[in-house]
Specification:
359 residues; Rossmann fold; 2 domains; Dihydrodipicolinate Reductase, domain 2; alpha/beta
């Protein structure tokens, strides 16, 4: 008989409304949403009514205490992720936490230690791009390149609102008290200072982008290529909105570039070059569900020409694939590949990148 895991969701904002709730509904033989939590009463009631979830709480601690919650999705503001994850672990609840898992290395170490004390609890970090079938296929094919000569991680996209406002209706929390918003801002600023010091505003924005958008890219880079020997170079421009870096892999260098503009398109891909073949994983915006994520292979044909092959292993959404992997991990007690210890490696690279940006 298939196990049905009961999910409590902390944070009912756009990522929960657009991606997680539809994914969980699609997987309704594996998951059932039994409780919601949000600081906005309007969002909490409206989302609860829309998805027919009866239990609704303004405080995450009350949600975690529910007997009919086996799994906690952590999707509230970044500065509170570690606090909620630790509380869920202490209550022996499995956790899927949206990236970033936390904002500082000490927070990551706390979570890793808590998992060690509760080995029956599965904590998976929500870097869903790594669960996309095209990316999984690329990881299997990387050995076919032979000696790698060059790699590139590119993620220059339009602002998320350009995709969301024309394709989704998101219930917004316009009723959140000013004091709560200010407290969240203060905590976020405090966590950034703890992570990288009291740096100028442009480096705070750069770190925010690394924690948000770039953890997808860097995390996937690490799975595909391994952990680099060092960060050779890192810089920010445009007030921290555009970031570049170079990672030393010994025999080759991986170039990294990211930025956010006002063009409504999503240009995100990883490329790895060998002597006779290259692999390219290309991502679409996650804010429109089920768009194709593809693997392109370009190779010499041995006759003076070339072959370009585009593979889309199946139709589906990376968030659904992520939840399916999480289901397997908690049902079979498997350690996720996107574990707390794995996410900590991103924080180490982010720290080193910011240090180089500081000069």
């Amino acid at each position: 008989m298939t196990a049905l895991w009961r999910v409590g969701i902390v944070g009912c904002g756009e990522v929960t409304q657009i991606m997680h709730l539809p994914s969980l509904y699609q997987l309704n033989t594996q998951f059932e949403v039994t409780a919601l939590c949000d600081v906005s009463e309007h969002v909490l009631q409206a989302v609860g009514d829309k998805w027919r979830v009866a239990k609704r709480f303004p405080d995450y601690r009350d949600l975690i205490a529910q007997a009919d919650v086996d799994v906690v999705l952590v999707a509230n503001p970044n500065a509170y992720h570690a606090e909620v994850v630790l509380a869920a672990i202490a209550a022996n609840k499995h956790v899927l936490v949206e990236k970033p898992m936390c904002m500082t290395i000490p927070e990551a170490d706390q979570i890793i230690a808590a998992v060690g004390q509760h080995p029956e609890v599965i904590v998976q970090v929500g870097t869903m791009r790594r669960y996309a079938p095209a990316f999984v296929l690329a990881c299997q094919r990387i050995a076919e390149l032979g000696t790698i000569r060059l790699a590139r991680v590119h993620d220059v996209i339009g602002n998320n609102a350009l995709f969301i406002n024309t394709t989704s209706h998101v219930i917004r929390g316009t009723d959140v008290p000013t004091a709560v918003l200010e407290r969240t801002k203060q905590r976020t600023d405090q966590r950034v200072i703890e992570a990288i010091g009291d740096v100028p505003p442009e480096l705070r924005l750069a770190y925010s982008i690394l924690l948000g958008l770039s953890t997808h890219d860097i995390s996937a880079m690490r799975e595909l290529l391994g952990f680099p020997k060092q960060v050779l170079y890192a810089a920010q421009r445009c007030g921290g909105l555009y970031l570049t870096a170079a990672f030393d892999y010994g025999d080759y260098v991986c170039h990294f570039e990211t930025g956010i503009d006002n063009i409504p398109r999503f240009d995100a891909h990883l490329e790895v070059y060998g002597a006779d073949r290259l692999l390219r994983v290309e991502y679409a915006t996650p804010y429109v569900r089920n768009l194709p994520i593809t693997l392109t292979v370009v190779e010499a044909n041995g006759k003076g020409g070339m072959i370009e092959r585009v593979e889309q292993p199946n139709w589906g959404d990376a968030f659904v694939a992520e939840w399916q992997a999480f289901y397997t991990n908690i049902t079979e007690q498997r350690a996720p590949k996107t574990s707390p210890a794995d996410f900590r490696q991103d924080l180490v690279l982010f720290r080193d990148m910011i240090a180089l940006m500081r000069g």
